[in-house]
Each structure stands twice: as structure tokens, then as C-alpha cells.
Design goal:
The complex is a heterotrimer of chains A (about 45), B (about 220) and C (about 300). Chain A is an alpha+beta fold and about 45 residues long. Chain A is built from 1 helix and 2 strands; from the N terminus they run ββα. In chain A, strand 1 and strand 2 (about 15) form a beta hairpin. Classes of the chains: A alpha+beta (about 45), B mainly alpha (about 220), C mainly alpha (about 300).
Chain lengths: ~45, ~220, ~300
């Protein structure tokens, strides 16, 4: 990760791939937390 | 008035016990509706904060020169960075979850308020951390951030160019304030309990244009 | 199999700790070394000399900054009619000519040419000094690569010699210590060396190469390929769009806007409309689907 970062551009938006992965993972984990069944509570 | 009633320790203990009975302070059971992974993220945020504090404590123990000079120091520096990334990662998911539960309902507004201020305080604390790395990042971030703080007239008090001041902000002042907020927030959660689901009838009585997921369970 | 609350807490702590260690081992952390004045003077001598002359001339970024460094009632950002920056007062005074150039050079006693150049400069009238520094700054600006060796001849007085000697002092590493040790034995305030180095373009060029510029969403970025402060996305976003991107008061405006938005986040439970979004979006039906299924 000490190599220069890769950046993506869409119009006014500029974001590093690293930040995009972090934000993408956050959204993914959030959705999974809502959708996945929670163990041990099912009746 | 008995002797015990006059002693401030006894009075404080009695007040504390009334406000937060032991089973409420450290509960071993949660209501049945607490059955979603989203509930894990509050505890996960606290866990990440604990790792932040421990790794930061080791950095403080060895001092600023250590985290660049030695591989061990740099490794602990890495632990501190990634625990902070995880702290924000879990905290933001926690915030999203609590937002969609409208977790401020039922006299829980103060829980939301303390949590939101703790979130903003965490941003400030992390920011001062970037300033005391004593590397290129610190140079650039401090010379940029000074403009923001100076533009509203507080730059001489929150002086980002003063390394000594920022180090003390980062390791003493801000963690103290943040620690107080987090403890207050957690005690409020214990006192008020976890927010219950929206009443079913009310939910069903509010038709929503788009079909949300989980529609099939609406009565 | 169902875990108790305590077991679950321990498991979460274990997972977070393990994740931290794995991420630290696999990715490490960024640590681009700090730029010293010596490195700047060695790697970009022309930029260093140009900056030094601007400090002497009183035309550098710091010299024209206003509060809290310089007393200039016309300088500083405003929030509408409110000169908030000026309200803070000049609490960290900096005299760029004296603090960055004349002062450090005055400590060099073994250089007769420098001594007489300093005496000539300090003995001249303000107008004469301004004429020398202004003319030399212009000439440097016009010289190829801003190279002091290629400057056209002109009446610059002792200024070229002073700038050249400051470059020598900086290259030797002496200026780093001098700008820091201006007050006493123990020092923790890096305001002077940081302000000086930030007045040049060397630091900024390096930052821009790492996508750290203010107009590059720099606040949320990090050196190398590391994730940065992604949580600053909204704060840095405003700087990218009008009216902020073209305003001289962008910092004050964005600060004020973020204060309002932060307050809205804190007080969300009391704001009609916003506080009803959770009920309207019905994401909660997903969170509590077990409850709604069993309590139907």
C-alpha cells in the first residue's frame, strides 16, 4: 500500500480505490446486518 | 438523618443504584426483539474503541520518536490506525442502524444526542491524531487545517501548528471528553433500555408508496 | 446454540482485535517522512529562494494572511459581513522578514559579506527595501525556472546575497533548528517552520501528487494506497462545488455549513420531517422482522 494510490474520477467526484472499498464494505456490511438471520433467536 | 444518610458516598451509591440497578447496568438478557446483527455494531464500536485506547496507550508509553524509528513502533502505529478505521466503520453502521430504528423514541433523545456528539468528537480526536504523527501527513494536514480554524477565529487556541498542544489534545483532552461522552451514552442505553419496535398498527396504518422489504409480514 | 450476552460481547471484542491485528500485519500504515527545510532547499533551491524573497518582501502567503499571524485589517476570511478571522486577533504574531530571513541570518557571524549586506539592508529606508525585494521578486519570477543564477541584471541591493546565504544556511540544516528555537530551550511549536515551508510550492507539489489537495477531495485521502479519513467526505465535498470552490471565504462558509449540519445531526430527534424518515422508509420492518412475524 506504499505505492501511489489509484484514483477514480466521475465529474466532480474523485475518490481513491482504498476509500471506495472501505465505503463499499460499510454499505455491504450494513445491508448484510439487516438481511442475514440472527442466530439463536428463531422460535 | 442516620449516619449513613449523611455520608456522600452512601447517598451517591443509593442514587446510582436507584437509577441503574445492577441487572440494568450489566444486563445478561436482552428483550426478544433484539434479534438482528445490527445490534452487534454498538458493542463492536466499543470494542474497537478499546483497541484504539490500548494501542494508543502503548504509543504513549514509548513516545513520539518510537513510532517512526523502530519496526515495533511502526507496527503499533499500524494497530492504532486500523483500529481507528474499524472504530469509524462500526460506529457509522451503528449510527445508520439506530437512525432507521428511530432509536430516540420513548425518552431516548439524550441517548441519540450523546452518541451524535461522541461521533463528532471522534472526528476531532482522529484529526488531532493525524497531526501528531510527525510525518508528511502532519505537515500537510496542519498547514491546510489551520485555514479552516483561522477562518472562524479559533486557530490561535486550537493551534494545529503547535505540535505540543496537539499531542496533549490528542492523548489527554479529547479522549477525556470522548470517554465521558461514551460512558454517558452507554449508561443512558442501560437506563432507558433498547428502543422497542414501532407499534405494528401504526406501521400498517401508514401506507408507503414503494413496497419496502418485509412487506409480507405487515398485518 | 445461543450465546449469552457476555459471551457475545467477548466474541465481538475478539473479532475486532483479530481484524485489527490482521489488517496491521497485512497492510501496515503510511509514514511518508516529513520534509525538512534542508530537504526543501536542497531539492528545490529555486522555490526556496523565491519563497525567501517573498517573505522578505512581505508578499508571501503568511505575510498577507491576516489574523492570527499578521496585523492586516483588510485580510482574513469573512462569514457574510462577519470578519470572524479578524475577531480572533493577532495572537501568534509572525514578522516574516525578521523571523524567517533577517533573524536567522543575523546569527551567522563568520561571514563578512553577509554582515555588510545585512547592515546595508537594515540601514536602508522601508521604500528602498521594498524597491529591492519587489524588483528581485519580479526578476526571479521572469527568470527561466525561477533560477537565481539566470536573473536579469538590475538594482536588487543586498537582497540576492541575503537570499543566497539563507539558502546555504537551510541546505546545511541550520535553518531547521533556528526557526524552531526562537523562544527558549524546549520547543514544541512548529508554527514558523511550517508556515515558511507552506509558503513555497515544494510541499504543495508533493501533496498534490498524493491527491491531498483541497480541490482533490484531499481531506479524506491518505498518502500511498491507504484508506484515509473517509468520514470527512461531506466536509471535503463542499470545497469541490460552487459557491465554495470559487470563494475567498470558502473555509468560513464550509465551516459554518458543517456546524449547522452537525447540529442537525445531534438534534435530529427534534426536527420534524427528518425524524419521520425512519418510519417512512420502513427499514425497521427488516430489523424487527422476527418481532412482527411472532406478534402478528
Amino acid at each position: 500500500m506504499d505505492q501511489p494510490g489509484t484514483y477514480l474520477h466521475w465529474g466532480v467526484i474523485q475518490i481513491s480505490v482504498a476509500n471506495l472499498i472501505v465505503i463499499g464494505l460499510m454499505l455491504l456490511v450494513f445491508v448484510l446486518a439487516l438481511v442475514l438471520p440472527f442466530p439463536g433467536r428463531r422460535r | 438523618m442516620t449516619t449513613e444518610e449523611r455520608m456522600w458516598t452512601a447517598r451517591l451509591r443509593n442514587r446510582a443504584t436507584r437509577a441503574l440497578p445492577p441487572d440494568q447496568l450489566l444486563p445478561d438478557r436482552q428483550p426478544a426483539y433484539v434479534a438482528s446483527w445490527i445490534y452487534v455494531f454498538g458493542v463492536a464500536t466499543l470494542a474497537a474503541l478499546l483497541v484504539v485506547l490500548v494501542s494508543g496507550g502503548i504509543l504513549a508509553l514509548e513516545g513520539p520518536q518510537w513510532y517512526h524509528g523502530s519496526p515495533q513502533g511502526h507496527f503499533v502505529n499500524s494497530l492504532h490506525l486500523w483500529s481507528v478505521e474499524l472504530f469509524f466503520f462500526t460506529m457509522v453502521i451503528h449510527l445508520w442502524g439506530k437512525f432507521f430504528m428511530a432509536a430516540w423514541r420513548g425518552h431516548r433523545a439524550m441517548t441519540w444526542v450523546t452518541g451524535a456528539i461522541a461521533f463528532l468528537g471522534s472526528i476531532g480526536t482522529a484529526f488531532t491524531g493525524y497531526l501528531v504523527q510527525s510525518n508528511f501527513d502532519s505537515q500537510w494536514i496542519s498547514t491546510q487545517a489551520k485555514d479552516g480554524l483561522n477562518s472562524v477565529g479559533v486557530g490561535a487556541w486550537f493551534n494545529v501548528l503547535n505540535y505540543g498542544q496537539m499531542l496533549l489534545f490528542h492523548v489527554v483532552l479529547f479522549p477525556l471528553v470522548l470517554g465521558f461522552l461514551v460512558i454517558w451514552h452507554v449508561l443512558l442505553v442501560r437506563r432507558r433500555g433498547v428502543v422497542p419496535p414501532f407499534a405494528d398498527e401504526a406501521a400498517a396504518a401508514t401506507p408507503v408508496p414503494q413496497a419496502p422489504q418485509g412487506e409480507e409480514v405487515a398485518s | 446454540m445461543s450465546m449469552t450476552t457476555r459471551e457475545r460481547r467477548s466474541a465481538v471484542l475478539g473479532v475486532i482485535t483479530l481484524l485489527t491485528v490482521v489488517l496491521a500485519v497485512v497492510f501496515g500504515s503510511p509514514d511518508k517522512h516529513a520534509i525538512s527545510l534542508a530537504e526543501w532547499a536542497r531539492n528545490a533551491p529555486n522555490d526556496f529562494v523565491t519563497t525567501a524573497v517573498a517573505e522578505l518582501d512581505g508578499s508571501s502567503g503568511t505575510a498577507t494572511y491576516g489574523a492570527p499571524y499578521v496585523n492586516d485589517p483588510t485580510a482574513g476570511q469573512k462569514l457574510g459581513p462577519l470578519p470572524l478571522q479578524r475577531f480572533g486577533g493577532v495572537r501568534e504574531p509572525v514578522d516574516t522578514a525578521q523571523d524567517f530571513v533577517i533573524g536567522p541570518l543575523s546569527t551567522v557571524t563568520s561571514d563578512p559579506a553577509l554582515r555588510s549586506a545585512l547592515a546595508r539592508y537594515q540601514g536602508a529606508s522601508d521604500d528602498q527595501r521594498k524597491a529591492w525585494t519587489g524588483a528581485y521578486a519580479d526578476a526571479l519570477g521572469k527568470a527561466p525556472d525561477n533560477d537565481p543564477a539566470k536573473v536579469a541584471t538590475g538594482d536588487y541591493g543586498p537582497v540576492p546575497l541575503l537570499a543566497g546565504r539563507l539558502l546555504d544556511l537551510a541546505r546545511s540544516g541550520g535553518l531547521d533548528g533556528q526557526l524552531l528555537s526562537s523562544g527558549g530551550f524546549y520547543q514544541t511549536d512548529y508554527a514558523k517552520p511550517l508556515l515558511f515551508i507552506a509558503d513555497g510550492t515544494y510541499l504543495e507539489d508533493q501533496a498534490r501528487a498524493e491527491h491531498l489537495g483541497g480541490d482533490q477531495w484531499g481531506m479524506m485521502n491518505e498518502t500511498g494506497g491507504y484508506p484515509g479519513q473517509a468520514w470527512l467526505w461531506l466536509y471535503t465535498f463542499w470545497y469541490q462545488i460552487p459557491p465554495f470552490s470559487s470563494s475567498d471565504n470558502a473555509d468560513a462558509l464550509v465551516w459554518a455549513l458543517m456546524m449547522v449540519l452537525s447540529l442537525a445531526l445531534v438534534l435530529l430527534p427534534f426536527i420534524p420531517g427528518l425524524r419521520s424518515i425512519p418510519r417512512a422508509t420502513r427499514v425497521y420492518r427488516l430489523i424487527w422482522r422476527e418481532h412482527y412475524r411472532t406478534n402478528r
